[in-house]
Each structure stands twice: as structure tokens, then as C-alpha cells.
Amino acid sequence: MTKQKKTLGEFIFDNQSAFPYSTGELSKLINAIRLAAKITNHEVNKAGLVDILGDAGNTNIQGENQQKLDVYANTKFIQTLVQRGIVCGIASEEEDDFIAVNSHDGKNNNSYVVLIDPLDGSSNIDVNVSVGTIFSIYRRISPVGKPVEMSDFLQPGKNQVAAGYIMYGTSTILVYSTGRGVNGFTLNPALRTFYHSHPNMQFPETGSIYSVNEGNYIHFSKGVKKYIKYCQMEGGDRPYASRYIGSLVSDFHRNLIKGGIYMYPRIGPEQKGKLRLTYECNPIAFLTEQANGIATTGAERILDVQPTELHQREAIFCGSRKMVEQLMEFIATED
Ligand code: AHG
Ligand code: MN
Ligand code: MN
User: Model pTM?
Assistant: First the structure.
């Protein structure tokens, strides 16, 4: 008989004591994210039903669905975390400034801040393509008992205590790490329960997929251009397949399972990256390293970058070790 898979709730409980500062606070926080993920999943999955439900005269649902889904997801994640009083601060792609949160006793004695991209790839919603949520968790560095400060949110990615994403795809999967490997949990929609479907996820050492928006090719550096040409040339297992969904979470998830490299280089006349360092690049880089891959800006390890602003953009190259190493060789010799 095959062994029944653990639920996410059981997994969190079983792993709680192994965590260095275990007070149960981080476990509660991940449980809250699990709950917000289920609520958001429910809403994302009925996105295409807006008019149909409206026609049926359900004004309440109609009203709720008219809200943009990224705003909806933002509200649900923030509400869930604030109502449970388990974080001391939240920063989100959808909010200009960070939010300071009091714990239930009205004081500020929680230890963790959360940074989120509530709905990643949101332009894909209208065309029924998968989207995600990305989260990143740090211990605060300002004194407990006082309101959180900007410095709590501007820590380098290497300080993350946990990070992960939820992908609302053909099935819904929550993938996260607390610094001891990466684990994936697939939602059984009938039972509304996440099961441990992907234990100890690791990037294959190499792969045959490259993921980049090639429409921006003209702006790429010489080294990146050369690497893209290399991906397309015959030799070994090349040419590689080009796969680009346009949802970071989905592109990353596929490459993590199959082996591949994801690239969002600097673009435009100002030569800036597009993805946000604190709630896109950093959590993805944390997971990459935990899954034995490499994540770099092209010049330095993503997790070493000192953020200076909440919403700053950064270039990112991440994925299978050998593929990123090959890219870095081109960058080193050409740029
Ligand atoms: P968001 O929907 O949170 O704004 O993020 C969109 C991001 C990311 O998901 C995706 O990989 C990238 O933008 C796609 O950008 P291009 O359309 O420029 O390729
Ligand atoms: Mn995003
Ligand atoms: Mn977003």
C-alpha cells in the first residue's frame, strides 16, 4: 500500500521544532499564507465566470469579481496576516509604503515581516494562463516592541528565513523553503487541503529550456546576446527549447522541475531590470539556491544585493547550475 502523503498542516507542525528560534510564530505565519492562498485560489479559478455569475443575479459575487484580481489578492493576504496578528509588518507590490502591524495585545512583539507580490503575471488572467503569488519572510532587525522600520524590509535576500510561491495553474501548488530544502504541496480542491506532492525539489544540474522575453533582445548586453545565440546553436543537447509564459512563478516552476534557465536582463534606454528585487528576485533566488541552482544579477549573487528602495528593480538570471555558469562565462568575456 502506498503511504498517504502528509498534508501541509502536518508538515509545518512536524518541522516546527527543527527551526532554530522555534516559538511557533513562523509556523503560524506559513499557516496564514496557506489560508490566504486557498481564498485567492478560489477567486482566481472563477475569474472567467464573472459575467455568468452576474447574469444569474448574484450581485454580491458580481461586485467582488469586478475588483481587479491583483487588488483582491493583495487585500486577502494583508487581511489574513493582519487579522491573525502574526507579523509586525507587510510590504506589497500593490502598496507604495510598507504597513506596520500591531500584535493582538496592541504592542509590537512579533518578529517577522513579510514581502509579497500578491498576484504575479496578472496580465495573464484575462487569457486563462496561470498566475502566482510570491512571498518572502525576514526577522525584523529593529527592536521588538517598536513599530517596524524601512530597514526591516531592506535586508539583503540572504537574510530571508523563508520564501515561497503559490502557482494557480492546472493544479494549485504551494512551494516554499525555510532554508532546509524546497518542498511543494498540491491542493486537492475537493478536500481543500494541500498535500506534500513534491518533496525536496532540486534543479536538475542542467536542462534544455531557456526562458526570456526575446522581444527585448536589442537591449541585451553582448554577453547575454551571445548566450541566447549559444542556446539556439547546434551542439550537445542544443538547440534548447525556448519557453516563456510571462508569469515568473510559472516559468520558474517549470524550469525547476524540468531543468532550465530564466532570464530577465536589463532593458530599455536606462538599462534597468524589470522584476522587483525585494518580492520577486529575492524569494525566487532563495528558492533557487535552496534547490541547488544559481541566481545572479549577472554581476553578483542576487541574495547579496543590498536593497535601497522597497520597489527597486533588478536584473535576474536563475536556474540550473551549469546553464547559469555557462551564461556567466559569456558575460565575463563579452561585457
Ligand atoms: P506582475 O504581474 O506581478 O506585475 O509581474 C509581471 C512580471 C513577471 O511575472 C513576468 O515574468 C514578467 O513580468 C513578464 O514581463 P514581460 O511581459 O516584460 O516579459
Ligand atoms: Mn510579479
Ligand atoms: Mn504582481
Answer: 0.94
